[in-house]
């Protein structure tokens, strides 16, 4: 019976082990990811719509969500610009230390977020190496929204570079030559020929960095200052609600954040399918 | 390609030093130098300086203070717990990654792209939410928590919860590295081995596994780095009991919040060393493993 059922969803193949591999995959995925996540939605629905709306429209919740999404957007935009430049120099130019730079780009993937958090705070605090340079001008970086953006720039950079890099590597240089022979300046070629092809990858990188930044906790809480309404990010508010045993508060904010993340994932998929239709599989 | 262009721009006509030939597909020298300088400054300030700061702050109190901070009993317990959690979480995700990539890369079935998307799901969930979902499942206010407790099993504020949260957060790493490579390699090698009379497991261990070994090692390394360094998810489920449920990143936080900065950075520097080690092995693998992909493309 089981074999028949499997045969109907899968194209015939001589390679064995499909049932076992898919069985392990689905059971593990279900137990670790899907059932616990479903539990979150089930739990948040239990409180009823009135309770959900009351917490969702609470001033402190809204301030935290606005801060999380706002700083994540700014950080992802900064990363889009510098990540694009980095990908460009790594693919197109040859300079001493290029391979080392290429390796360093992945540092935020490997460095634990709490370590990044305390290191950035040490640098940007009013008495830190960089913070003390700005302090005389009355500019405060750590313990403000600026500090949050800096932490989010740190953790999001590799997403943009690693999204753009492979597409730029595969880009056909002859297209640029054609553009130049037709009289375009270098700037025109880059802006009107190269950039449109890179745009989908750049947007993908932007969306990945944005999604990661929205949920980031470890690196931010050290540098943020964490004062309610001002520098309190949404994930921190979830932790605070949990410590107050307000499970409905924690689940409501979590569900709001997840819905936003799903919408971002959906946007990534739309961008990718749009780019495939327009430019072919790159 | 980049190298040949650079070489080309350096070429001069004999006796005509003022004339430069620049290929039409490369920017002016000024622009190139400008972009490189901007990138290097950006990387130095945002990525390198924080790592340097960790080591400088860690060694500020001198080597003795550094050693004391690491061998102090609570720190040693945190290091042991971190190693234990990674030793459970990484093999679990390794087995899952192999099963998932075998199913996805070697077969065509309905719902494959949905499965692919679901595997990536933990990447887009905030670490704090990853911890929260296990509290809702196994905490004292949940359905399962009291039942398990009556059998003497505690999940939340104990090691099992930390392991679960770590598995969730590092869930996609191995699968993400293997699936694209195995899809690219196709089924040809496996079909050949089968036609020569190999059994399914023989094909897996003697053909498929050797074909993907470097990508597998790379995925395991990334998974391990994240497992040992995870903060948000573990922080929510651990309960921060010193010497019992404190992992290294949580221990760093406690020391930092007690203004014991030298000790906090000393423990943090161990995690930073792990990150640097991961990056170095990863880079070495990439140079090797680039040849291997080229080799598999050739046949």
Automatic annotation (TrEMBL), chain A:
Q: Where in the cell is it found?
A: Cell membrane
Q: Could you list the residue ranges forming a coiled coil in this record? A: none
Q: Which domain of life is it from?
A: Bacteria
Transmembrane stretches in the record are 20-42, 67-91, 103-125, 137-161, 201-225, 245-268
Membrane topology, as annotated, equals:
Multi-pass membrane protein
Q: Which residues form the ABC transmembrane type-1 domain?
A: 65-268
**Keyword Transmembrane helix in annotation:** yes
Q: Which UniProt keywords apply?
A: Membrane, Sulfate transport, Transmembrane, Transmembrane helix, Transport
Give the protein family: Belongs to the binding-protein-dependent transport system permease family. CysTW subfamily.
The record's section on PANTHER family has: SULFATE TRANSPORT SYSTEM PERMEASE PROTEIN (PTHR30406), SULFATE TRANSPORT SYSTEM PERMEASE PROTEIN CYST (PTHR30406:SF8)
User: What is the role of this chain?
Assistant: Part of the ABC transporter complex (TC 3.A.1.6.1) involved in sulfate/thiosulfate import.
Complex and partners: The complex is composed of two ATP-binding proteins (CysA), two transmembrane proteins (CysT and CysW) and a solute-binding protein (CysP).
Q: What is this protein called?
A: Sulfate transport system permease protein CysT
Species assigned in the record: Kaistia dalseonensis
TrEMBL record, chain B:
Coarse class of the primary localization is membrane
Keyword Protease among record annotations: no
Query: From what superkingdom does this record's organism come?
Result: Bacteria
Q: Which UniProt keywords apply?
A: Membrane, Sulfate transport, Transmembrane, Transmembrane helix, Transport
Q: Which residues form the ABC transmembrane type-1 domain?
A: 79-282
The regions listed as transmembrane in this protein's record are: 33-56, 76-105, 117-139, 151-175, 261-281
Which SUPFAM superfamilies does this entry report, sorted A to Z? MetI-like
Membrane topology qualifier: Multi-pass membrane protein
Matching entries from InterPro entries are given as: CysW_permease, MetI-like, MetI-like_sf, Sulph_transpt2
User: Where is the protein situated, by its record's location annotation?
Assistant: Cell membrane
PANTHER family listed in its UniProt record: SULFATE TRANSPORT SYSTEM PERMEASE PROTEIN, SULFATE TRANSPORT SYSTEM PERMEASE PROTEIN CYSW
Under the heading NCBIfam families, the entry gives: 3a0106s02 (TIGR00969), permease_CysW (TIGR02140)
- Known partners and oligomeric status: The complex is composed of two ATP-binding proteins (CysA), two transmembrane proteins (CysT and CysW) and a solute-binding protein (CysP).
Q: What does this protein do?
A: Part of the ABC transporter complex CysAWTP (TC 3.A.1.6.1) involved in sulfate/thiosulfate import. Probably responsible for the translocation of the substrate across the membrane.
* Protein name (Swiss-Prot/TrEMBL): Sulfate transport system permease protein
* Source organism: Kaistia dalseonensis
């Amino acid at each position: 019976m089981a074999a028949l059922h499997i045969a109907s969803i899968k194209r015939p193949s001589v390679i064995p082990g499909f049932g076992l591999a898919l069985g392990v995959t689905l059971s593990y995925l279900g137990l670790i990811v899907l059932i616990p996540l479903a539990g979150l939605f089930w739990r948040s629905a239990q409180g009823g719509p009135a309770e959900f709306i009351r917490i969702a429209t609470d001033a402190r919740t809204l301030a935290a969500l606005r801060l999380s999404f706002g700083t994540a957007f700014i950080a992802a935009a900064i990363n889009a610009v510098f990540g694009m430049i980095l990908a460009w120099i790594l693919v197109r130019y040859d300079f001493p230390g290029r391979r080392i730079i290429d390796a360093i780009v992945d540092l935020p993937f490997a460095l634990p977020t709490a370590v990044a958090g305390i290191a950035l705070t040490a640098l940007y605090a009013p008495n830190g190496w960089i913070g003390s340079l700005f302090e005389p001008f009355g500019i405060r970086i750590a313990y403000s929204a600026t500090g949050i953006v800096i932490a989010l720039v740190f953790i999001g950079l590799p997403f943009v570079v690693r999204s753009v890099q492979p597409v730029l590597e595969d880009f056909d240089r002859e297209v640029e030559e054609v553009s130049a022979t037709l009289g375009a300046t270098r700037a025109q070629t880059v802006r009107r020929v190269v950039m449109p092809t890179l745009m989908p990858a750049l947007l993908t990188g932007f969306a990945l960095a944005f999604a990661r930044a929205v949920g980031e906790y470890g690196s931010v809480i050290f540098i943020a200052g964490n004062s309610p309404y001002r520098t309190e990010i949404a994930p921190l508010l979830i932790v605070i609600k949990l410590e107050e045993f307000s499970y409905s508060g924690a689940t409501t904010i979590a569900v709001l954040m997840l819905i936003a993340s799903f919408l971002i994932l959906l946007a990534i998929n739309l961008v990718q399918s749009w780019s495939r239709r327009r430019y072919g599989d790159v | 390609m980049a190298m040949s262009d650079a070489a080309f721009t350096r070429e001069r006509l004999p006796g005509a030093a003022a004339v430069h030939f620049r290929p039409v597909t490369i920017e002016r020298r000024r622009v190139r130098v400008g972009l490189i300088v901007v990138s290097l400054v950006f990387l130095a300030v945002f990525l390198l300086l924080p790592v340097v700061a960790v080591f400088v702050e860690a060694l500020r109190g001198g080597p003795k203070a550094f050693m004391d901070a690491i061998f102090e009993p609570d720190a040693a317990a945190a290091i042991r717990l971190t190693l234990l959690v990674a030793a459970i979480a990484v093999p679990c995700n390794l087995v899952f990654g192999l099963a998932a990539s075998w199913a996805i890369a070697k077969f065509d079935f309905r719902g494959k792209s949905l499965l692919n998307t679901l595997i990536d799901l933990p990447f887009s969930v905030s670490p704090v939410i990853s911890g929260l979902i296990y509290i809702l499942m196994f905490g004292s206010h949940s359905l399962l928590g009291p039942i398990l407790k009556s059998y003497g099993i505690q999940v939340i504020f104990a090691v099992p919860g930390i392991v679960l949260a770590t598995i969730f957060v590092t869930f996609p790493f191995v699968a993400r590295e293997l699936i694209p490579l195995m899809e690219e390699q196709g089924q040809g090698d496996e079909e050949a081995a089968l036609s020569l009379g190999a059994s399914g497991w023989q094909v897996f261990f003697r053909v498929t596994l050797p074909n993907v070994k470097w990508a597998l090692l790379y995925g395991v390394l990334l998974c391990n780095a994240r497992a040992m360094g995870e903060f948000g998810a573990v922080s929510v489920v651990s309960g921060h009991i010193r010497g019992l449920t404190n992992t290294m990143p949580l221990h760093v936080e406690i020391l930092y919040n007690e203004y014991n900065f030298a000790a906090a950075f000393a423990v943090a520097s161990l995690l930073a060393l792990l990150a640097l080690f991961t990056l170095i092995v990863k880079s070495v693998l990439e140079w090797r493993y680039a040849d291997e992909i080229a080799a598999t493309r050739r046949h």
